[in-house]
Write a structure and sequence with these properties.
With 337 residues, the protein is of the alpha/beta class. It is built from 13 helices and 12 strands. β6, α7 and β7 form a beta-alpha-beta unit.
Length: 337
Amino acid sequence: MKTAITDCDHVAMEEETGVFASHGVEMDLLQCRTEDDLIQGLRGYEVVGNQYAPFTERVFANLKNLRAVVRYGVGVDHIDLDAASRHGVSVSNVPDYGIQEVAAHALTLMLALTRKLLLLDKSVRAGGWAYEVGIPIYRYSRQTIGIVGLGRIGKTLADYVRGLGMRILATDPRYPQEAGERYAFVEMTSLETLLAESDVVSVHCPLETARNLIGKPQLKMMKPTAYLINVARGGIVNEGALEKALAGGWIAGAACDVLVREPPVGIHPLLRLENFIGTPHIAWYSVQSSKDLKRKLAEEIVRYLNGQTPLYCLNALNELNELSEDRTRGNGQGGRG
């Protein structure tokens, strides 16, 4: 059996190669960047791993043997899921490798913003020693956090901030008004109510369904003392609107681990603002989560190659199986490359 990784910027791949070797799978590492790279490089492969290379309608149409793509990480906005389904290709991600890390990073950014850590550190480094530089600072048990997206990460963040005594609001179209017995302490509400009542807003929803969810109208709904955190994906928060909100005092501050373009070209306008904290898309990372991501991607690829049911499929399996059977009958080959 054979697979290919379309592209990967990881320093090492011991986890992947270890899983593949234990199952008798050969792996080819490519570094595809464009549609043409994918079309030329993947001819004959049935199951592939992917990081950033774009899987579009044209790519799927030209790769007749392809039946599954497994993506490093959660987001799949560079993969056309509808096109994949039309061409009988199953798409999986790895949604559960860095849950604790991302939630902890959001919590860390919240603490840094609300306790004015960067401002105070800058003052001390300049020779100051006045706590007044950081005021006002508010007690957490008197504050409200709004969590946009109550999935795995959003729920974990809710668990974390519960210990601070914060009131917790959440909005998520996938959940009913009652989030279940364990999360009865979370108040489900609308996005508008959440923005208006929260002292901290933390974003944890997928880009595919939430592009530009937070723009000028939404930022105007927030308190002038409120903070915004985005550790989900760049593009959920409109960066131009956020710059105006921070410069104009619509909100008190913001922190983002993600941007629309990563890395940014030159000095990003947000990085010129003292009430903004930026980190380089590291929220997902720990030594353990990095290993989990790579191992789980390889295990999902092996499941596909062995004809087993994948754990993380994002499109309808029954429809895909029928389409795959039709395509196999049509071209008379399975071709592993």
